[in-house]
Write a structure and sequence with these properties.
185 residues; elongated; 4 strands; two-stranded antiparallel sheet
Length: 185
């Protein structure tokens, strides 16, 4: 943000204590959301949130901070966060949580087939517990037994005209899901 509203991480804790005596304060949550929004609009090549090279520690700290909105029940900040395109989907798109159902890509260790018309979170983003807690707060659905049944129905439903031609990879994903979830029905 211009003007800059945060300190360099190169400051030592003793320096920060001195700066607090001169009026240094904490960022308010509105400015934090503005920083997130600016980062998301910067595009994948300039965004820390969207970069595949951003480490888990950074995502953990960021999501822990953003989850503060739910811990403090700041409804206006929660609404702002839900409007941001901050959820990475399989296929590379980023979406907001307020435009419809979004699901995690697995039921336990069973991978949900990608080509069923469901919006599935990028599996790389679900490896981080803090990101998952943030996605939970945003309303991303965990795959449960009723959803497994729905997925099985989607797979087994006869395709309508024009006849769908599935790739080998898609067929294997579907068969694997059916096989590994058959005991649940």
């Amino acid at each position: 943000l211009r003007p800059e509203v945060y300190l360099s991480d190169l400051y030592a804790p003793t320096d920060i204590n001195i700066l607090k005596k001169f009026g240094l304060g904490c960022l308010n949550f509105t400015k934090i959301i503005a920083m997130v929004k600016r980062d998301l609009h910067a595009g994948p090549e300039h965004s820390r949130i969207k970069s595949p090279n951003t480490d888990d520690d950074w995502h953990t700290r960021t999501c822990s901070l953003l989850n503060l909105a739910w811990r403090q029940t700041w409804s206006h900040h929660i609404r702002s966060l839900k409007r941001l395109d901050i959820i990475p989907l399989q296929g590379g798109t980023w979406v907001s949580s307020d435009i419809g159902d979004i699901f995690y890509p697995k039921y336990g260790n069973v991978v949900v087939p990608k080509d069923l018309g469901m919006r599935l979170v990028d599996p790389m983003a679900t490896r981080n517990e803090s990101r998952c807690a943030f996605f939970d707060n945003l309303g991303v659905h965990r795959i449960d037994l009723p959803i497994v049944s729905n997925i099985r129905e989607r797979i087994l439903r006869q395709p309508t005209a024009p006849l769908m031609i599935a790739s080998l990879e898609s067929s294997v994903e579907r068969m694997r899901f059916l096989f590994l979830t058959q005991h649940l029905c």
